[in-house]
Every structure is written in structure tokens, then in C-alpha cells.
């Protein structure tokens, strides 16, 4: 992707809290390590990016395309009642977008998932199955 920066690196907290799913033209797509939700994190590979509004217009458009693609993958894998999309960055300033499949009655419903309770790690088998399903859905167009 024109605009991706060779000086980019993944924030250590994002790396520790997530697992790689796909590498798209702009973003690394990662699964959040919290079995309570089907939760993707999209991280644009642009060094020092903090806010969406600071990106050039063409990169903003590509990010929107990739958020829609992640949303479609979550619909295919999880059939959620609702999709939540947000770019908060209050704890990790590196630009990243959360795309979360939500279900009526999930652990945080109807409130936001951020800061609600304690993350529950996947079992190895559940993580492997979830990653396999998401990788297949993210590879599909």
C-alpha cells in the first residue's frame, strides 16, 4: 500500500494482547485475546499514526474499506446481532480500529466492551479454531 511506512512497528501491548489473522494492503488484522467476544483489531502500518483524521484522504478511504471487510468477516464467522467499530487510542496511542461482533446478552451488552470486566483467554483449541475461521473469512472477498 502506498503510504505504509517501512519504519512502522506494532505496539508491544497490541502484540501481547492479540494474534495475527491477516495482512491486508493497509492494516494488520489481529484477533483480540478475549474469548467473551469475537473481536478484531485493525492496525494501519503507518509509523506514528495516532488519529484517523491525520491520515491522507486516500489512506482514510482504504481504512474504511478494510473496516468494512473486517465487518463482513465477523458477520460470516459469528452472525452477530450488532457490530461495534471504534478507534479509541486512550491506552494505546498507535492508531488501531476495534471491530467487535456483539450479541444481545454478551458480557458487556448493551454497553461497550472496553473496560468491562476481565478478559478471558481462549483455550488453545478455541483460539486455533477461531483463528482458522477468521483467516478463511478474511481471505475471502
TrEMBL record:
GO terms for molecular function: catalytic activity. Residues 40-109 form the HIT domain. InterPro entries: HIT-like, HIT-like_sf, HIT_Hint. Pfam families: HIT. It comes from the Bacteria. This is HIT family protein. It comes from Cognatilysobacter bugurensis.
